[in-house]
Amino acid sequence: MARRSRCKRKGSHNLKMYRSRVAGWGSYLPERVVTNRDLAEFVDTSDNWIVDRTGIQQRHIAATGEYTSDLATRAAERALESAGVDASDVDLIVVATATPDQTFPATAVKVQADLGVSRGAAFDVQAVCTGFVYALAVADNFIRLGQAECALVIGAETFSRILDWSDRSTCVLFGDGAGALVMRASEAKPGTNSPGVLSTHLHADGTKRGFLYVDGGPSTTQTTGHLRMSGREVFRHAVGLLAAAVDEALEANGLEPDDIDWLVPHQANKRIIDATAKKLGMPEDKIVYTIDRHANTSAASIPLALAQAAEDGRIQRGHLILIEGMGGGFTWGSAVIRW
Ligand code: UT7
Is residue 201 among the annotated active site residues? Predict the structure, then answer.
C-alpha cells in the first residue's frame, strides 16, 4: 500500500523528502580463528610485532568452499531478522566488496537469489576499504530520491583469498567477514535529531592507486592476483585524510566532536584509529574497536563493528554515529547517522 502511494508521488513530482533510517543490523564471521601465533608458525613474524604495530590479535578465515556471498547472505539474514523485515520487501541490495565470488555477475545478485528475492536492483560497489561508506551513500541516495524503499547495504570480504601468504608485511593484517544494515525510507524532518543518515561524503584520488592494489585482474593478467601495499605510505596518508573527512562531516551537520556518541572507524590499524580520534579530541571509550579480533576486513569492517556494538547495547536508538574509512584508490569518506 505504502509502495503504491509512493510511486504515485514520484510520478506526480511530489517532492516529499525521505531519509534512510537504520531498521536492522547483522554480522557474520567465519568459524575458523587464526591467531598471530598461528601465523608465526609459517611466516617470519611474531605476536608482539603484530600487536604493537597494528593492535591485531586474531582474524577469522573463511572455510574452503565458503564464499563472499555466503558471508554476505548470513549477515543479511541476521539484519533482516533484527529489522523484522521480510526479504521480499527488499528492493535494493548493494554489496561492497573487493573480493567478489566471480568477476561477474555481481555478488549482490547471488545474495539476492540466496535470500529468495527476484525483484528490485542488486549490484556491487568496489571502493576497497571505503566500500561500505560508498555503498551506504549509494543506497541513501536511492532512498532519498524515492527509487528504493528498503535497502540491504552489505560489506563482505574474503581477503584471505587474495593475500600472498609468504609476504609478512601484508598477510598478517587482514581477515574475512561480513556486516549488513537494513535501511528503510522514512519521512525526513529538518535538523539532526530525527533518525537516519544525515550526511555522506565520498572522495577518491586515483593518482595514489599504486600504494595499495592487487597485481592481477581479468583485463590485465587474467589471474586474480595478490594484494600489494606500501604500508608506510598508506599509513602516512590515512591519518590526514581521515581527520579531514571527519571534520567535513561535522561541519556539514553543524556538529561538534562532543555531539558524537560513537566513532565507528574502518579497522585497519589501531594506531591509525587512535591518531584520528586524537585529532578529533574523541576519548577512547567513544570508539568502537574490533581490530583486535577481526583484523582488517576491508569493506566489512565498519558494518561488522556497527552490528556488534548495536547487538551488545553500546549503540542505542537516538545515538549519533560517525563512520569513516580509507583504502585502496585511494578512496576515503564518512557518514553521520542518527541511529
Ligand atoms: O585498510 C586499508 C588501508 N591500509 C592501512 O591503513 C594499512 C596502513 N599501514 C599500516 O598499518 C602499517 O604501515 C603496517 C602495519 C602495514 C606496517 O607498520 P609500520 O610501522 O609502518 O612498519 P614498516 O612497514 O615500517 O616495517 C617496519 C619493520 C620492517 O623491518 P626493517 O626494514 O625495519 O628491518 C619490516 O620488514 O617491520 C618489518 N615487518 C615485520 N616484522 C615482523 C613488516 N611486517 C612484519 C611482520 N612481522 N608481519
Answer: no
| Ligand 1 pocket mutation pick from 52, 129, 169 by most atoms within 8 angstroms of CB | 169
One-letter-per-residue 3-state SS of the chain? CHHHHHHHHHHCCCCCCEEEEEEEEEEECCCEEEEHHHHHCCCCCCHHHHHHHHCCCEEEECCCCCCHHHHHHHHHHHHHHHHCCCHHHCCEEEEECCCCCCCCCCHHHHHHHHCCCCCCEEEEECCHHHHHHHHHHHHHHHHHCCCCCEEEEEEEEEHHHCCCCCCHHHHCCECEEEEEEEEEEEECCCCCCCCEEEEEEEEECHHHHHHEEECCECCCCCECCCEEECHHHHHHHHHHHHHHHHHHHHHHHCCCHHHCCEEEECCCCHHHHHHHHHHHCCCHHHECCCHHHHCECHHHHHHHHHHHHHHCCCCCCCCEEEEEEEECCCEEEEEEEEC
Q: Which domains does the chain have, with CATH numbers?
A: 6-187 (3.40.47.10), 196-338 (3.40.47.10)
Calculate how far, in angstroms, residue 49's C-alpha sits from the geometric centre of ligand 1.
Answer: 9
The answer to whether residue 129 is catalytic is yes
Q: Which of 60, 201, 226, 266 is catalytic?
A: 266
Known catalytic membership, residue 266: yes
Note down pLDDT in tens along the chain; length 339 residues.
334 334 333 433 445 689 999 999 999 999 999 999 999 999 999 999 999 999 999 999 999 999 999 999 999 999 999 999 999 999 999 999 999 999 999 999 999 999 999 999 999 999 999 999 999 999 999 999 999 999 999 999 999 999 999 999 999 999 999 999 999 999 888 888 889 999 999 999 999 999 999 999 999 999 999 999 999 999 999 999 999 999 999 999 999 999 999 999 999 999 999 999 998 889 999 999 999 999 999 999 999 999 999 999 999 999 999 999 999 999 999 999 999
Q: Which atom of ligand 1 is nearest to the CA of 168?
A: 48
pTM value is: 0.95
For ligand 1, the distance from its centroid to the CA atom of residue 299, given in whole angstroms, is 21
Residues with CB under 6 A from ligand 1: 45, 49-50, 53-54, 129, 168-169, 172-173, 231-232, 234-235, 238, 268-269, 272, 296, 327
